[in-house]
Amino acid sequence: MASPLRFDGRVVLVTGAGAGEPRAGPTIPMAGLRRAAAGCLAGAGTGCGGGVGAGVEIRRRGGKAVANYDSVEAGEKLVKTALDAFGRIDVVVNNAGILRDRSFSRISDEDWDIIQRVHLRGSFQVTRAAWDHMKKQNYGRILMTSSASGIYGNFGQANYSAAKMGVLGLCNTLAIEGRKNNIHCNTIAPNAGSRMTKTVLPEDIVEALKPDYVAPLVLWLCHESCEENGGLFEVGGGWIGKLRWEQTLGAVVRQRNQPVTPEAVRDKWEKICDFSNASKPQTIQESTGRVIEILHKIDSEGVSQNHTSHSTSTATSGFARAVGYKLPSFSSSYTELESIMYALGVGASVKNPKDLKFVYEGSADFSCLPTFGVIIAQKAMMNGGLAEIPGLSINFAKVLHGEQYLELYKPLPRSGELKCEAVVADILDKGSGIVIVMDVHSYSGKELICYNQFSVFVVGSGGFGGKRTSEKLKAAVAVPKRPPDAVLRDSTSLNQAALYRLSGDWNPLHIDPSFASIAGFEKPILHGLCTFGFSARHVLQQFADNDVSRFKAIKVRFAKPVYPGQTLQTEMWKEGNRIHFQTKVQETGDIVISNAYVDLVPTSGVSAQIPSKELQSALVFGEIGRRLKDIGHEVVKKVNAVFEWHITKGGNIAAKWTIDMKNGSGEVYQGPAKGSADTTIIISDEDFMEVVLGKLDPQKAFFSGRLMARGNIMLSQKLQMILKDYAKL
């Protein structure tokens, strides 16, 4: 025989355990508590009864027990009794119950309210009081007591049936929310004789349905080795059965550009109610997933949505007014801090030396990741701008990010303020929903820096008879049908979404477990644009050596969600200067970004964004070289150092110069050091001229961040000797 189930070290709280005879209502708790290290018995909440008889019986059998006489509506007091006596709580059995049976027309407010308070509110109050303690110890078992009356209904028990079905709904949600903390919640619907049921059942039936036959199921569901969670069981007389929901295949009752009518429902009623080949959904995701599948099927077959309140012509004209609507222009300012925060949010790390340029502002070639461009433009989508568009009367809780396109006309400045202009480029009718195409152009002064196209899908707003395609929409492109040329992987952190949201996407879907659950996810999901950033980094690293000047454009289609902690795998195909890619979750194999590509600037096409002749510093370096030419040998002896200068314009490196006062007779030339530089100095063209003219103190420039240096910084003190004493600037 297998080893007996024991509850050593566990503290069990059972409500409804003290109402009268020790072998009627209290039989269920006694059976469990005599196996437990400690237990707490509580009354039903009616003010009568007590745990004396039950407690005596438990202690007689070697257990420990305390009684509590408070109502279950005072759940905190019940739990406090257990905590004060035993220091913890492991199991809660919500067993308290009373009856106030009346036919529906005779139920008084008092009859209704007291049943809800004891059964439903009582279960809520006791469980809530124990919940945080269970979360902290990462363990808990909760049992709810429902009834066949709640599941099937029963004459004269409308109040009781409603409360007992409510208990089941409470259990279903607690099973989802408690799963990650090893808290399991199940529901039983017992047919058992007790003090309560003696008022409605004959004595011989009560004896045949004695609680002794229910207790073993209670013990198993409350045991630490039981993995059952969210289950519903009928039990009685030595029989146990599990219940589940069934869903018919149903029927579609819509026709192209025609309203749904009650006659159409009538005509399909037999099919709607046909349980042949029925499915058995177990989660809200499975249930709503079925609806989404039908919507996609309807979309592909060109069947319209229901229009019971608005005519097709009205909807068409409304959406037509929205196309071309310009949102108020807005500004996006940022510093190196925001750029670095974004880079960390999309997985850049000091573990990869080549990522240092994205996360350290002192890096000689510090750069914004190209995909930071979406952060600049996202205010158009994040600040509720869509809700202000005339003609768009839609439920924005049903908005999904479908596709994204980003094009850069030059590398993003390391810091700056860009003016953004957003316009509704087009609206497409996909039947099961609409696609809103939003174009956002971002300017530095009058110069266009980047262009974003957001494509958002609004579920359930389609079928108005509009066009299905648009030449304005940047097309997604399928990946080649051959093995990828390169694959890169990155593990996301459990804090990835928490970090990425600091870049401005505050949607609680990505941080709040409760909100994510309401949206149909088991936990918060990663931002789609975060996955977008990871993927673009992979392409830039693999095919452009992290050279941001080679990044031209990116287009992606979002396919499935990612959970923080999962590993992203980017598969890439090179075809000329276009890198096709798709991104998968390594653990599941699910494609989360599809039909995507990055366009790169050809290597031969990469040149300095600003010609050296347009930089004032170029004239100065030329003059330094001329003035040091005849005395270079003397300067080399005194300086013995190589200085590399990175001159920036608009936040980007525009030119590199080297002053070599270490080798031969010295040399000044354009470009990086031919060997290694002892000191590298990064400064803007404007600030360089201020320093040369004596208007800006180099030390103050360094501490204010206007001048940055790396390498042997102390050698920079010799620059005054070069620039002032010898070059005589």
Compact summary:
With 729 residues, the chain is α/β, with parallel strands linked by helices. The longest helix has 29 residues, at 109-137.
What does this structure look like?
This protein is α/β, with parallel strands linked by helices. It is 31% helix and 24% strand. The strands form three sheets. Strands 9-11-12-13-10-15-18-17-16-14 form a ten-stranded antiparallel sheet, with helices on both faces. Strands 3-2-1-4-5-6-7-8 form an eight-stranded mixed sheet, with helices on both faces. Strand 20 and strand 21 form a beta hairpin. The longest helix is centred in the first third of the chain and has 29 residues, at 109-137. The chain is elongated and about 120 Å long. The protein starts with 6 loop residues before the first strand and ends with a helix. Residues 19-33, 43-52, 302-314 and 606-610 have low confidence and may be disordered.
Structural features:
729 residues; eight-stranded mixed beta sheet; elongated; acetylation; SDR_fam
